[in-house]
Fold this protein.
Amino acid sequence: MRADGAVADPAAADPAIDDPAVDAGRLLHRLRRGLPLVERPYAAIAGELGIGEQDVLRALAHLIEAGAVGRFGVIVDHQALGYTANAMVVWDVPAERIDEAGRRIAACGGVSLCYRRTPRPPVWPYALYTMIHGRSRDEVAGRVQRIAARCGLEEADRRILFTVRRFKQTAGCYGRTEGGGQR
């Protein structure tokens, strides 16, 4: 992800690496699984890829400079921390207020995602989508009420869609797959 929030195409990053020993697609694919929790994580990754630690560090510096990698972050399993209730909350906000409402909601605690999408009125008028987490459904519902009040959305039509079952939860994957194909 670039600093401006756009996702760069990892396959396009291949030419940015001057070292022919390093395949940017393989390196990016490996980095998506996270850093190993060892004293020298880049050395461990280098060992997996059959290259040197300095090769990994140089390639990573090039990928950051090219905008293919914007930052590293931690992905937390919220359920393991006791946050077992979550809901997608969809909001019907007037078009002229969506950007402001989105920024304000995104700044609230317990909100992990906030997106604007195209509504499909009259059946589905909701254009603002958020994921809100809590330790119980009551906590999530209370958080939704507080967010609505804080953001001036008390009157906005909204639906709280609680998760019933999680089938998959992973970090986003872009570009090449393990076998070298595109996703």
